[in-house]
Design a protein that fits this description.
The structure holds two protein chains of two kinds. Chain A is mainly alpha-helical. Chain A has helices at residues 2-25, 27-55, 60-69, 71-94, 99-103, 107-111, 117-151, 157-184, 188-212, 217-221, 226-237, 250-274. Chain A has one domain. Chain B folds into three domains: 2-39, no CATH class; 51-270, Rossmann fold, CATH 3.40.50; 278-358, 2-Layer Sandwich (Alpha-Beta Plaits). In chain B, 31% of the residues lie in helices and 31% in strands. Chain B starts with a strand and ends with a helix. Classes of the chains: A mainly alpha, B alpha+beta.
Chain lengths: 277, 362
């Protein structure tokens, strides 16, 4: 039994290594990370400009809020932008991880090796996640440093760590959704189209349904992983208002966030294991 | 009777068993209740694990379509088994099940006597597989592709490097070692696929149409390689459309048609079976032939079919093998004023067997 587990882990490791390096070195990764950098640092710049503006603003309330919250306010802005653009970046990295193998007919040469399909799917997922996490951590940490330096107010380690960690989890959720799509479809075009459709659907649907059923708008908003992400970010940054967690508790949001990670990942691995190539 | 003391793999408890040579027994450890099986060695002291591949009542269905229908055959260790069948007969589906790419809907597959569904990882270490169109990661270099696949077998890096160098040298790809696979021709990709199939020094090598679309030189290379590997004890499972190739290298053939196995035997035995059942072909060559003469030949009892070939200069006559009809046909043609220049009887080859059994000759 131990040997079997070792064999499974070994297969996962080999797959992870291959996927990690090939993703990290890919042109697509470089382009996406440049975009992510521009989005994050652009938002940071915008936030810093807003604070400068607030200091000279006649609106005392707004001015106080921005100056008091300072760096945390900018991080919240970054999280808001990431919740919009982040999903498409993560999906763009993982949408073809499985389907590409089917198309280039390399899957048969892979499955005939002493490796299980679960190990292949897990290794691929971990490889993409690792390749995604390294630059995202660097970029978000850089954003934290810039905000701290420019605003003249330090960001607590817990706040910065929480912000980076939750942002990574949010992106990993969409990487799992991308891999799930990749496990089911037969062409890369279908995969990317479904990925975009899911991105738009999740962004819009919660708001639309919530508009028509206002009594359950909080519950319905959980359809979009951005909601638990932004709530947990507010919690980590210490800006969470009590009214935000009146209907659904903070634990409920965290649980939803974890479920958003586990369910697509589980489905991606199991469907790949069950579907025949 | 032989008495044997075994040690339980789980609790290390010693168990004494008795049986006759070749007996297969199932046993339960009295201490930890672990179930197991044991085969007593034959009288010569060897274990009877001579079957490399055993396919028992395998069926594969895709929704309502049955691609492979209750097939059974076995291949002994060290054999070169040719797997033949027309397009869509179920060859690739069978191969995909043998390599765990597909799971059988019903039936059992055994490799070296072990159920493939129970120990797939262990058994895949002993199998090399080359698909009909090997697909690679086009952005990777040939050597990197080999290293990637080789790592699954836990071959130490240094040994793996030596092995890869050796295989690339064998495949005449050394100068392309650091070239991206996307720059490779089809033949080079086939060779690289063959090299990756040999990375783990397989005991069974499964080749699905290895020479399809290749030039004669590469085909010859593949044939030589197959023969040389077989001499080293590797069991070869060769699926091919090229019947001459199968006839040249295979010790045994299996013919599959419409998902069913219609024959499994040596080529000689199949030929003999076909000959005893049916027909042989006789060719008569002449300057020209008349309609009347053809009709006269057709009327001879035992003549199955008559075909006029090469602008009325050759008659291909299929005759009942049980009857010696050549003199009668000869006489009939002479009576009709035909000046025969040559009579030739054709030996039954694999193509005849294949076409007859699959209905392709109709």
């Amino acid at each position: 039994m131990n040997k079997l587990i070792f064999d499974q882990l070994w297969g996962t490791y080999v797959m992870f290594k291959k996927e990690f390096f090939s993703t990290l070195k890919s042109v697509r990764m470089i382009i996406l990370m440049i975009l992510f950098t521009l989005i994050v640092l652009g938002t940071v710049y915008g936030g810093l400009t807003l604070i400068d503006f607030a200091e000279s603003s006649p609106d005392i309330d707004l001015s106080e809020l921005m100056i008091n919250q300072g760096p945390v306010f900018i991080l919240s802005m970054v999280a808001g932008i990431v919740s919009f653009f982040g999903p498409i970046i993560a999906i763009a990295l993982s949408f073809d991880t499985i389907v590409k193998e089917k198309i280039q007919n390399s899957m048969s040469l892979l499955i005939c090796r002493p490796v299980s399909k679960r190990s292949i799917a897990t290794g691929k997922f971990l490889g993409i996640v690792a390749a995604l996490c390294i630059p995202v951590t660097i970029i978000t940490y850089l954003a934290v440093l810039i905000i701290s330096a420019q605003s003249g107010k330090g960001i607590e380690f817990g706040q910065a760590g929480g912000f980076i960690f939750l942002t990574l989890i949010f992106l990993i959720i969409y990487a799992a959704i991308g891999q799930l799509i990749s496990s089911i479809v037969k062409t890369t075009t279908t995969a990317i189209l479904i990925g975009i459709a899911i991105w738009i659907f999740l962004l819009v649907i919660g708001g639309v349904i919530g508009y028509f059923i206002p009594d359950f708008s909080e519950q319905i908003s959980l359809i979009n992983p951005s909601t638990p992400y932004l709530i947990s970010i507010s919690h980590a940054l210490g800006t969470l208002e009590e009214t935000s967690v009146e209907v659904i508790s903070l634990g409920g949001y965290y649980l939803t966030f974890v479920l958003w990670l586990i369910v697509p990942l589980f489905l991606a691995i199991e469907l790949f294991n069950r579907l025949e190539n | 009777m032989i008495e044997k003391t075994l040690r339980c793999p789980s609790c290390k408890n010693q168990i004494k068993i008795t049986g006759n040579p070749g007996d297969k027994i199932t046993l339960i450890c009295p201490n930890c209740k672990t179930k197991g099986a044991f085969t007593f060695p034959n009288e010569d002291g060897k274990f009877d694990n001579s079957y490399a591949i055993e396919v028992s009542n395998i069926t594969k269905k895709f929704n309502n379509f049955t691609a492979v229908d209750n097939i059974s055959f076995s291949i002994k260790s060290g054999e070169i088994f040719g797997f033949l069948g027309p397009n869509g007969a179920g060859k690739t589906t069978t191969i995909k099940m043998l390599t765990t790419l597909l799971n059988p809907t019903e039936g059992k597959l055994k490799i070296f006597g072990i159920d493939l569904s129970k120990k797939p990882l262990e058994l895949k270490k002993r199998i090399g597989y080359m698909p009909d169109v090997p697909g690679f990661y086009n952005e990777m270099k040939a050597a990197d592709v080999m290293h990637f696949y080789g790592e699954f077998y836990k071959i130490p890096k240094l040994k793996r490097r030596e092995k890869i160098d050796y295989l690339l040298e064998m495949m005449d790809l050394t100068s392309f070692k650091n070239k991206k696979v996307k720059t490779f021709s089809r033949g080079m990709k086939q060779k690289l696929g063959f090299a990756t199939a040999l990375l783990n020094d397989p005991e069974i090598l499964i080749l699905d149409e290895p020479t399809i679309g290749l030039d004669p030189r590469t085909i010859r290379f593949f044939r030589k390689s197959i023969e040389s590997l077989n001499k080293k004890g590797v069991t070869i499972f060769l699926s091919s459309h090229i019947l001459s190739e199968v006839q040249a290298v295979c010790t045994k053939v299996g013919i599959i048609n419409k998902g069913k196995i219609i024959a499994v035997d040596t080529i000689d035995s199949l030929g003999a079976m076909l000959a005893s059942k049916g027909a042989k072909i006789v060719y008569f060559e002449f300057e020209n032939i008349t309609e009347k003469a053809v009709k006269a030949v057709q009327a001879i009892p035992g003549v199955i079919s008559v075909k006029i070939m090469k602008e009325k200069r050759i008659l291909e006559i299929e005759v009942d093998v049980a009857k010696s009809l050549t003199p009668a046909i000869n006489k009939k043609l002479v009576e009709n004023g035909i000046n025969i220049t040559k009579i030739e009887s054709k030996q039954i080859n694999l193509e005849d067997i294949f076409l007859t059994l699959t209905g392709g000759g109709q």
